[in-house]
Specification:
The complex is a heterodimer of chains A (about 550) and B (about 90). By secondary structure, chain A is α+β, with helices and mostly antiparallel strands. Chain A folds into 4 domains: about 100 residues, Sulfite Reductase Hemoprotein, domain 2, CATH 3.90.480; about 160 residues, Sulfite Reductase Hemoprotein, domain 1; about 90 residues, Sulfite Reductase Hemoprotein, domain 2; about 140 residues, Sulfite Reductase Hemoprotein, domain 1 (2-Layer Sandwich). Chain A is built from 17 helices and 21 strands. In chain A, strands 16, 17, 18, 19, 20 and 21 form a 6-stranded mixed beta sheet that branches. The mean pLDDT of chain A is about 95. Chain B has one domain. Chain B has 2 helices and 4 strands, in the order βββαβα. Chain B has a 4-stranded antiparallel beta sheet, with helices on both faces. The mean pLDDT of chain B is about 95. Classes of the chains: A alpha+beta (about 550), B alpha+beta (about 90). Chains A and B meet through helix 1 and helix 13 of A and helix 2 of B.
């Protein structure tokens, strides 16, 4: 994985020192809150309902064991013994004290981490496929390109005061595990006819109050031109993106208003201008330098294991079926560690659990952990012969839930239990649904079903792209929940359709159960919930759910 | 409708309330009930002064019921802690 060079380290260390001074000046009264707020946000520090919240960047979701142990240490020393993995491959501490934050940032810097660009109107933490470097279906390691984009975008003066925040996601596999089409820019890396890397650039996707699927604006961009093309896109946005209305300032609104064709022309013109000067061509030597950080670890030559004997253990067999994915190298596997125990809080992990996963990664997965935007952890390179031992250890620590991509693998934002922006709680709904569908055989019978919950229209819980999405709203001081169907954040991206009037908190589990039963009654062999929905449409679900009303 | 004045403490973000004696207290139960709009305005001025003195961030008034409970779920949660972690926030000490 990538290691800081002297410039990276200096830059991050200097930022810590700057913020230490800014905090001291805020506490002494030299800075007002109005002056301090943009400074703290530039360092990932928010003020939420109960306390400050520090959001730490995990670039493209990759962590070393040392880094995860530091995150656990910080949770223990400065917070309340846990942390929350978010839907953007970040981590949040919910209770830090202002005076401690410079020390926390210094601890993070000591393991090559920071909280820069996790807030504000800048290019945010670049996200990627959490199976990168291990997936059998990828054409290249998307982390190489994510890192190149990270270096280009970090503190880029031209893009530090954008009209709004800007999110970039990268994948290099036909199966989109990074939700690239609902990002401001989503990049799909593929091989062209001559087997050269080619970059398809989708622009103008996003969720929030105006959910839109991104348009293919740049097709087959060459590797050396990637940054030039991205810069051209950013310049068009910077020039034409609205700054007069917060709700219309994202690039998706610009693309929607001028149309994909016009956006394509504008970017092409800017791209030609940049190319003419040649300043942004990526040198092959630089690509090679970054690539060297992401070379395969020293995989052993192993046969694929016969796990028949261990699979006699029903719980292990179920876990293998749902949480273990095919690795590109024989004898290895990709393991998803569910942070969704039945009735638990999606994405939360205790310091002890983080330490345990770090130690397991050190011993069994080449010292590497991934964080998924679905709020789970991943050990990307596990020998198949170690799976049984790994599962036993995880299970004892409450990390062995066999529910990846099933109905209880719920994405949920922190909602009104923590978040200053939320209108309604979301975790409580996730917990209730998790308990309602706890039976594993039932979950497996239902099959893949992406259930996502947001506590407000900002959609941090990705409800727009849930096969079933739930949005919490406030109606005269009472929490209600609006259901959408048919969303997808995958390669077949779509925005969910609103089903009908919202439900009260207590009625949500019954409502979801009726939807699931409707699907089970209508599905044809091999269909997922989403497939059935797309075949039969929303009406049967609507009729079933609102029949009594 | 009666109101209570709240804010977050600058140093640690803790939720605090203006008490009858002018102190900033962590417990909602110890908050001063502001019965009239004039009481609310006077309290808000105290809060704004505390903001200028680096004690607080974002002082504001919120409505309470006749039973002296917050009207909105947001303030119920701020007064107690996350409903999904009863071991955290003010409620942990209850």
């Amino acid at each position: 994985m990538y290691r800081y060079d002297e410039f990276d380290q200096k830059l991050v260390d200097e930022r810590v020192a700057q913020f230490r001074g800014q905090v001291a000046r805020r506490l002494s009264g030299e800075l007002t809150e109005e002056e301090f707020k943009p400074l703290r946000l530039m360092n990932g520090l928010y003020l939420q309902l109960h306390a400050y919240m520090l959001r730490v960047a995990i670039p493209y979701g990759t962590l070393s064991s040392r880094q995860l142990k530091m995150l656990a240490h910080i949770a223990r020393k400065y917070d309340k013994g846990y942390a929350h993995f978010t839907t953007r491959q970040n981590l949040q501490y919910n209770w830090p004290k202002l005076g401690d934050v410079p020390d926390i940032l210094a601890d993070l810097a000591s393991v090559e981490m920071h909280a820069i660009q996790t807030s504000g109107n800048c290019i945010r933490n670049v996200t990627s496929d959490h199976f990168a470097g291990a997936a059998a279906d990828e054409v290249d390691d998307p982390r190489v390109w994510s890192e190149i984009i990270r270096q280009w975008s970090t503190f880029h003066p031209e893009f530090s005061y954008l009209p709004r925040k800007f999110k970039i996601a990268v994948t290099a596999a036909p199966k989109d595990r990074a939700a690239i089409k609902v990002h401001d820019i989503g990049i799909v890396i593929r091989r062209d006819a001559s087997a050269k890397l080619a970059f398809d650039v989708y622009v103008g996707g996003g969720q929030g109050r105006t959910p839109l699927v991104g348009h293919l604006i740049g097709e087959g961009i060459e590797a050396g031109d990637l940054l030039a093309y991205l810069e051209a896109t950013m310049r068009v946005y910077n020039q034409y993106g609205r700054r007069d209305n917060l709700y219309k300032a994202r690039i998706k609104i610009l693309v929607h208003q001028i149309g994909a064709n016009e956006m394509r022309c504008q970017v092409a013109a800017e791209f030609a201008e940049i190319k003419q000067h040649g300043a942004l061509t990526l040198p092959q030597a630089e690509i090679d330098r970054i690539n060297a950080y992401f070379l395969d670890p020293a995989f052993e030559k192993l046969p694929d294991e016969d796990l028949t004997a261990q699979r006699k253990n029903k719980a292990f067999a179920a876990w293998v079926e749902t949480n273990v994915a095919k690795h590109k190298v024989p004898g290895y596997a990709i393991v998803t560690i569910s942070l969704k125990p039945i009735g638990g809080i999606p994405g939360d992990a205790s310091a002890d659990q983080m330490d345990l996963v770090a130690s397991l990664a050190e011993r069994l997965s080449f010292d590497e952990i991934r964080v998924s935007h679905e709020q789970n952890l991943v050990l990307a390179h596990v020998r198949q012969r170690d799976l049984f031992e790994l599962w036993q250890t995880l299970d004892k620590a409450g990390l062995g839930t066999a529910n990846h991509a099933l109905i209880t693998d719920i994405i949920a934002c922190p909602g009104l239990d923590y978040c200053d922006l939320a209108n309604a709680r979301s975790i409580n709904i996730a917990q209730a649904l998790s308990k309602r569908f706890a039976d594993l055989d039932r979950q497996r019978n239902i099959g893949e079903l992406k259930l996502k919950i947001s506590g407000c229209i900002n959609a941090c819980g990705h409800h727009h792209v849930g096969h079933i999405g739930i949005l919490g709203v406030d109606k005269k001081g009472v929490e209600y929940y609006q259901i959408t169907l048919g969303g997808s954040g995958a390669e077949d991206a779509s925005v969910g359709e609103i089903l009908g009037p919202a439900f009260g908190e207590a009625d949500v589990p019954d409502a979801i159960e009726k939807l699931v039963d409707t699907y089970l009654a209508a599905r044809q062999p091999g269909e997922r919930f989403l497939d059935t929905y797309r075949r039969v449409g929303i009406q049967p679900f609507r009729e079933k759910l609102y029949a009594a009303h | 409708m009666a109101q209570v004045l709240t804010a977050n403490r600058l140093s640690d973000g803790e939720v605090v309330y203006l008490a009858a004696d002018g102190a900033w207290v962590e417990s909602f139960d110890a908050a001063k009930i502001l019965a009239t709009p004039a009481d609310g305005e006077a309290a808000l001025a105290v809060g704004q002064e505390a903001e200028r003195n680096q004690q607080l961030v974002h002082a504001y008034l919120f409505d309470i019921t006749p039973a002296k409970k917050p009207v909105k779920m947001r303030e119920i949660i701020r007064a107690a802690g996350p409903t999904v972690r009863r071991d955290l926030g003010k409620q942990a000490a209850f």
